[in-house]
Specification:
about 200 residues; mainly beta; 14 strands; about 0% helix; disordered N terminus
């Protein structure tokens, strides 16, 4: 866990300070500090991917007796915080309705009893994981294999096929439409008695 501390402008000679710490879900990404991560359900084939993922952020309480509370700021561009969550004296906040695949930037401030707000803490960013695409296969009367399913809108995926589960071949790509649906017809499907697919 990494703590980012920023000294800030004071009120009546006192210095307010705030440190933001967020623990990362992926330990390999040490620079991303996230404390608790979101619920990311896998969509069923008949559903579309929708916003609604959330993340809980936490920070170390200031030891400064002038600190009355904290505000968490976030936005979709570094240093441009278009949203604010008033946290009161709590040292955690949950941000909901995050878009899968989007990157968000977070910073926190403290404020004094007289309402003087500190400068922003160090910034942390987090990219909400995109849910995996769902995939279903059907066979037409002409023997063509038709793949349909769901995924992240505008996301492109490779369609891969195999007969032995050892050698996978890219047979095409598909881009998910605005409603979260995808369709792909295997052009070589009729030449196989059976074939297995995956999407990446």
């Amino acid at each position: 866990m990494r703590t980012i501390t920023k000294q800030t402008a004071g009120c009546a000679g006192a210095t307010l300070s705030v440190s933001l710490q967020i623990t990362g879900v992926r330990k390999a990404l040490g620079g991303i500090l996230l404390l608790a991560l979101l619920h990311s359900p896998l969509p069923a084939v008949s559903q579309t991917v929708s916003p609604g993922q959330s993340v809980t952020l936490g920070w170390t309480a200031s030891t400064d007796t002038n600190v009355a509370g904290y505000d968490l700021y976030f936005g979709s561009a570094s240093g441009d915080y278009t949203n604010e969550v008033s946290c009161g004296s709590a040292t955690t906040a949950t941000v909901s309705n995050l878009m899968p695949g989007a990157t968000y930037y977070f910073a926190v401030t403290s404020y004094s009893l007289s309402g003087v707000e500190s400068v922003f803490s160090g910034e942390v960013s987090y990219t909400v994981p995109a849910p995996p695409a769902g995939l279903q296969c059907s066979v037409t009367p002409a023997g063509q294999f038709v793949l349909s399913g769901t995924g992240l809108a505008s996301q492109s995926y490779e369609i891969q096929a195999t007969q032995d589960f050892q050698t996978w071949t890219v047979i095409g790509t598909v881009t998910v439409d605005g409603g979260g649906s995808l369709d792909f017809t295997d052009p070589d499907g009729p030449g196989f008695s059976s074939r297995f697919y995956r999407i990446q």
